[in-house]
Amino acid sequence: MDLEKVERLSALAEGQRALLWEAEETIWSHPETGYKEWKTHAYMKKVLEGLGYSLKEAGNIPGFYADLDTGRPGPTLVLMAELDSVLCMSHPQADPSTGAAHACGHHAQCAALLGAAAALKTPGALDGLCGRIRLMGVPAEELLELEYREGLRKQGIIKYYGGKLEFLHRGYFDDADLCVMLHTGGGKGSFSLSPGQNGCLNKQIAYQGLAAHAGGAPHQGINALYAANLGLSAINALRETFRDEDHIRVHPIVTGQAGAVNVIPDLVTLESYVRGASLDAIREANRRVNRALAGAAAAMGARVRITDRPGYSPVYNDPNMYDLTRRVMCRLVGEDKVLVDRSWGTGCTDMGDISCVFPAIHPSGSGAEGRGHGDDYRIVDKESALTLAAKFLLAMSAALLGEGAKEAKHILDNKHTPYPSIQAYLKAVDELSADLDAVEYLQDGARLHLS
């Protein structure tokens, strides 16, 4: 690693504070949830085109990428930022009409990407680098509003709920080689690294009963709410059967109920994730969860419709990218400011989809305080959240693409991604989708349909 080039390129971020601060404040003030990030898209497009970049836009959804060619052959490095916000109505900066709020730090990611983009246009910035740098703004990282996304899928606008998986499907990574993204975290002037984190499967469940008078003729009804409650209890009874090393998390919520207090409920809807440390573990846990949901319906004589959709793959931070990232971070802030966390994370991100087919790294920076996704989340140290984040992106570009891309070639020659190609991964992901009418009633009883 050419330390001089790393330091020289990363230092260019210091001249971009005005842009960094303005971008963070602008995007913070206009939070938008997944596949609705049109204001953020338009703002970033304006800034990037003003810097001289030409954008490839997704078109019918927000999102884009812009390539910067060094003029010398080499690999393509993708630097990413996420465009979307979360929903947190109680946040003081939430959009009152939607409840959207940047209680996740994605707005700081976007600002840092713009700062790095501006620095890369500085004369001499690309000296000594080879290959291409792809700057990418990706929609829909947070798995929210699943009914809305299912509607987009049925319209043929998207195929996948997650933005990075959708971008893989659309071919925006077809000529990529390595991927880097920095998440905004807590602390000051620091970074953290972990080996990886869970993936997940999305579930929507609809229990269908039969309405009847709750006081006068309850025997004529089938109570969908009771069926749903049994399903939730059955899932809870399964928890001790999940292996610790699989890090399974199942956390269903009730999203809707039709009817009135004097009517037996005939429709109750649930939503859940099944999270785990591998796709195989997620599949096995989901098989048990579906059996519990269907068994509860059969016990009450209800019907249940289960809709399973791919969420995110587990994140597998490439070991050689991990080592290089740690060295870059230590150079930027000192070894005492780099937290190496060996524990497995149980949250999820669609960076996992990228890590299944490319050497990738998804560490955390600093600069925020408060609970992630909570109403007290905010950026309190802009030097860390913005300037240092932009420096990291630039430093990784120099480390990977400098010296004839020596570090990048070492990583690519020794990569061990779970899937050999994008096509192979998409095939595996598609096998997770299911639309199940999970109970059939026969004259002599009920039959469960779980595949």
What does this structure look like?
The protein has helices at residues 3-11, 17-28, 38-50, 106-120, 146-154, 163-169, 224-238, 279-300, 319-333, 351-355, 382-401, 406-413, 422-430; strands at residues 55-57, 64-69, 76-82, 86-87, 100-101, 132-138, 178-180, 191-193, 196-197, 199-208, 249-250, 253-257, 267-276, 303-312, 315-316, 338-340, 360-361, 368-369, 378-379, 434-437, 439-442, 445-448. Helix 1 packs across helix 11 and helix 9 packs across helix 11. Helix content is 35%, strand content 21%. It has 13 helices and 22 strands. The longest helix has 22 residues, at 279-300. It has a six-stranded mixed sheet, with helices on both faces. Strands 10, 11, 12, 13, 14 and 20 form a six-stranded antiparallel sheet that branches. It has a two-stranded antiparallel ribbon with strand order 4-5. By secondary structure, the protein is an alpha+beta fold. The chain has two domains: 3-197 and 314-418, Aminopeptidase; 199-312 and 429-448, Alpha-Beta Plaits (2-Layer Sandwich).
Average pLDDT, rounded to a whole number, is 95
Q: What share of residues are in beta strands?
A: 15-25%
CATH topology of the largest domain: Aminopeptidase
Q: What Rg do the Cα atoms give?
A: 24 Å
Biggest sheet features:
6 strands, mixed
Tally of separate helices: 13
Number of strands: 22
Unreliable spans are none
The level-1 CATH class of the largest domain:
Alpha Beta
How many domains make up the coordinates?
A: 2
* Dominant shape: elongated
Category by helix and strand content: alpha+beta
The CATH fourth-level homologous superfamily of the largest domain = Zn peptidases
- Strands of the largest sheet, in order across it? 1-2-6-3-7-17
Which CATH-level-2 architecture of the largest domain? Answer: 3-Layer(aba) Sandwich
From the N-terminal CA to the C-terminal CA, the straight-line distance is 51 Å
* Amount of helix: 25-40%
